Amino acid sequence: QLQLQESGPGLVKPSETLSLTCTVSGGSISSSSYYWGWIRQPPGKGLEWIGSIYYSGSTYYNPSLKSRVTISVDTSKNQFSLKLSSVTAADTAVYYCARHSYGAAPAHYWGQGTLVTVSS
Amino acid sequence: EIVMTQSPATLSVSPGERATLSCRASQSVSSNLAWYQQKPGQAPRLLIYGASTRATGIPARFSGSGSGTEFTLTISSLQSEDFAVYYCQQYNNWLLTFGPGTKVDIK
Question: What is the C-alpha to C-alpha distance for residues A36 and A38, in angstroms, rounded to an integer?
């Protein structure tokens, strides 16, 4: 059974960098069949795709966040990570990691999500 | 960017009744459309992809239809566990976008 688990600080100061890691268990992140993505949801609001990565390191980002986002993969640890720089209160959200099929595709598996609050 | 809209914003339905949710894309997404269900405090769950294919383990009372710019999610007979928020998502290109959601609540 595939499981994804987000981890990282729940509180980040404005102007700093938000860093989260998604640990994948029950399957290999190096599978050629999948992309691994990050999606966020501000409290009480809708879903926003942040970006996705292939095990080779190929990435796609939401243009609205691209200048501040870096997604990376560590196949040896079966993990992928999100860094979002220069955060503001508008970046306060539940951050989900997810797996979707190769290419632009829906997410069949999701982590439980982790709330990150941006506040001084 | 392909903008997704959903209607209605809230749908009040009695248990056992049929619910019909709509999703519209600002330009054609072919059949590259998914539906998700989200309950409070939970991650979204994939219900439908390819506009009409049920994901693994999804009951047959959920069905999807449409192509191009107009899509529909139908829940044939609402069960208590179906009261939730439903999102559509297009994946026609690498700027994946979601609709704002339709909340299905108990009438």
Answer: 7
Tens digits of per-residue pLDDT, B55-65? 999 999 999 99
Q: Is the pLDDT of residue B107 over 90?
A: no
Q: Which residue of A has its CA nearest to B92?
A: A104
Q: Spell out which residues of chain A touch residue B57, defining contact as CB-CB under 8 Å.
A: none
Residues 7 through 66 of chain A touching chain B, CB cutoff 8 Å: 37, 46-49, 52, 60, 62-63
Task: Of B103, B97, B64, give the one whose Cα is nearest residue B83.
Answer: B103
Residue A91 has phi, psi (to 5 degrees) of -90, 0
List pLDDT tens digits, range B74-106.
999 999 999 999 999 999 999 999 999 999 998
pLDDT digit string, tens, across residues A76-85: 999 999 999 9
Count other C-beta atoms under 10 Å from residue B78's C-beta: 20
Q: What single-letter amino acid sits at A34?
A: Y
CA distance B96 to chain A (A): 6
As a whole number of angstroms, the distance between CA A43 and CA A72 comes to 26
